[in-house]
Amino acid sequence: MADEPLVLGIETSCDETGVGIVRGDTLLFDAIASSVDQHARFGGVVPEVASRAHLEEMVPTIERACREAGVALSDVDAIAVTAGPGLAGALLVGVASAKALAVALGTPIYGVNHLASHVAVDIVEHGPLPEPAMAMLVSGGHSSLLLVPDVTHDVRSLGATMDDAAGEAFDKVARVLGLPFPGGPHIDRAAREGNRIAIDFPRGFTSGRDLERHRFDFSFSGLKTAVARWVETRHRAGEAIPVADVAASFQEAVVDVLTRKALLACKEHEVDHLLIGGGVAANSRLRALAQERCDKAGVVLRVPRPELCTDNGAMVATLGAQMVLKGREPSDLGLPADSSMPVTLVQA
Amino acid sequence: MQLLAIDTSTSAITVALHDGFRVTAESTTLDPRAHAEHLAPGIRDVLGQVGVEPGAVTGVVVGIGPGPFTGLRVGIVTARTFGYALGVPVRGLCSHEALAHQSWLAGRRGELLVATDARRKEVYAAAFSLTRAGSERMGDVIVARPADLPEHWRSLPTIGRGPLLYPDSLPGGIPSGGVGGDLLDVSAGALADLAARRWSAGEALATAALEPGGGFDGLEPLYLRRPDTQPAPPSRKSTLG
Ligand SMILES: [Zn+2]
Fold first, then answer.
1. Among partner residues B47, B81, B229, which is closest to A101 by beta-carbon distance?
2. Per-domain residue ranges for chain B?
3. How many CA atoms lie within 13 A of A225 on its CB side?
4. What class has domain B96-165?
5. Residue B169 half-sphere exposure, CB side, CA atoms within 13 Å?
6. Residue A170's closest CA among A184, A160, A180, A181?
7. Residue range B146-186, pLDDT digits in tens
């Protein structure tokens, strides 16, 4: 146990300042400071506001993670940090801080991909990842289907959103319905009282030539527009908006497409484990429908607990620890922050 | 004393080490778009140049700007984290003070304007008085269009990239060979020298060190501008993770 690598991971790709500490595949502590409240009035994350908050929260969050994990910084064997993708200015705060730790402590540094980290974090929750695994990442920033033969160095992209990310569609529809930001939890809650087959909203890229050309890609902007139009039409006619039904029907359209494509990918690539990560994985209907469809297809579904689905430092530390365990070379101290780091590049 | 000095408020990613008597090592890279890439290797370099282990560093001083925010934060978060990891004090100093001090070290005396690039057609500017005792800032650092700076300031001998970018509005650029001139970007060596002078005075004087000009500034960046929240559209990512 004590000879397993002790890794500190830093995540600052968006609005969460995350510092996680992992020993081997055991999570010791995950410290998070979020600037979400500062962004709420803008209806989305404002990059400069996020960067300023990261600078303020960085050292206190490292301090809290060490204290709660009961480890001294001097015992840390390696530093891991999100190198990308994400907001450029936000990423830089975490990368610079991680490098300062690496130089001060004389440890190696691993610059890792944010998306691969979302996949890796389930190791501390549900044990080693089957190789290969299928992973679907759905959040406000990403909607991707990934085939993952080895999360430490071989991640393949099967498809991604062509326009809005799934979580972004939730935010925009929430705004249309007069629900607060961030939209995901509010739509989820409203939808529980609604009828999910009340309105037949469009499912992007699910039929005909679209499905052929974009087999594992997603599109949510048409759906978002359809909801906005539907609501506006009722509004103009002076009719009340059945918020619960709209929320439920919209949510159903999103999770139907997501789970359908994820299981199609499992079937075509003969993979029997599906992992779902990202903030939208906290959505109760997505979890329920994914479970139902996985059970029917004989696929094992893995979803980390909600705190590990949203952005956090534990996921970065987990991937870093896996890299150490697998004997991967550390990154160069000159590693850049890459706001558009491709998902197939696991390490910077 | 092993004082590590860092500044990323200008185009230079600059690091220096000071042993209490003099600057023993300095590493500077000019690359306004890659502060985070060069800074940590620069720190490793200066420590390596003189064979000082990171654990032997006794204090850190960082330039807190003003300067373009993204690069500025790289230096400040690096200093804060490095100091925290080693359990040593971290101090901040206005980066314009370091520029003025460098000019003073080169022998310049009299009034001086420091004008650095603030982008968006503006400069960060501060006026200094350089006497035998040292350089003293005359008032606040401001951000403004060069042509909108006080008339008196604009006619002063000027260092920083301001005169290079706006020669019409800032004609006082000191040419190459001019005493204490030709300074475009911050040098961590000058920052370290200034800090070392103030550090020893400040440790003894405690609160007196906080007086303007006499001591250190906080560790907050000198942003001088509020975040640009309107009309810039929010990023594509929501807080759903
Ligand atoms: Zn994410």
1. B81
2. 3-95+187-207, 96-165
3. 7
4. alpha beta
5. 16
6. A184
7. 999 999 999 999 999 999 999 999 999 987 778 888 899 99
Tell me if domain B3-95+187-207 and domain B96-165 are identical in fold. Answer: yes
- List residues bridging with A78 in a β-sheet: A7
pLDDT of A296: 98
Q: B17 pairs with which residues across the strands? A: B4, B25
pLDDT tens readout for residues B214-230: 478 889 999 998 887 65
Could you report the per-residue pLDDT of B127-153, keeping only the tens digit for each? 999 999 999 999 999 999 999 999 999
Residue range A130-304, CATH number: 3.30.420.40
Which residues in chain B touch residue A93, judged by CB atoms under 8 angstroms apart?
73-74, 77
CA A125 to chain centre: 15
Interchain contact A278–B (C-beta under 8 A):
yes
Backbone angles phi, psi at B71, to 5 degrees: -70, -40
What are the b/e assignments for B50-89, b being 16+ CB within 10 Å? eebebeebebbbbbbbbbbbbbbbbbbbbbbbbbbbbebe
Check CB contact of A83 with chain B, cutoff 8 Å. Answer: no
- What DSSP string runs through B54-106? GGG--EEEEE--SS-HHHHHHHHHHHHHHHHHHT--EEEE-HHHHHHHHHHHT
As given in the structure block, the two tokens for residue B177 are: 């060979």
In single-letter form, the type of residue at position A77 comes to D
Least confident of A7-11, A207-211, A325-329, B48-52: A207-211
pLDDT at residue A274 is higher than 90: yes
The single-letter DSSP state of residue A242 is -
* Best residue of A97, A186, A284, A315 to probe chain B, by most B CBs closer than 10 Å: A97
Interchain pair A182, B238: CB under 8 A:
yes
**Interface touch B80/A59, C-beta < 8 Å:** yes
CA distance B199 to B207: 12
| β strands within chain A, DSSP E | 6-11, 16-23, 26-34, 78-84, 109-113, 133-138, 143-150, 154-160, 273-277, 300-302
What are the pLDDT digits (tens) for A275-295? 999 999 999 999 999 999 999
Q: CATH fold of B3-95+187-207, please?
A: Nucleotidyltransferase; domain 5 (3.30.420)
CA dist A144 and A261 (Å) reads 10
In this prediction, residues A138-166 reach a mean pLDDT of 95
Convert the pLDDT of each residue in A81-120 to its tens digit. 999 999 999 999 999 999 999 999 999 999 999 999 999 9
In angstroms, rounded to a whole number, what is the distance separating the alpha carbons of residues A183 and A43? 9
pTM (predicted TM-score): 0.93
What gap in Å lies between CA B91 and CA B87, rounded to an integer? 13
The CATH code for residues A6-121+312-325 is 3.30.420.40
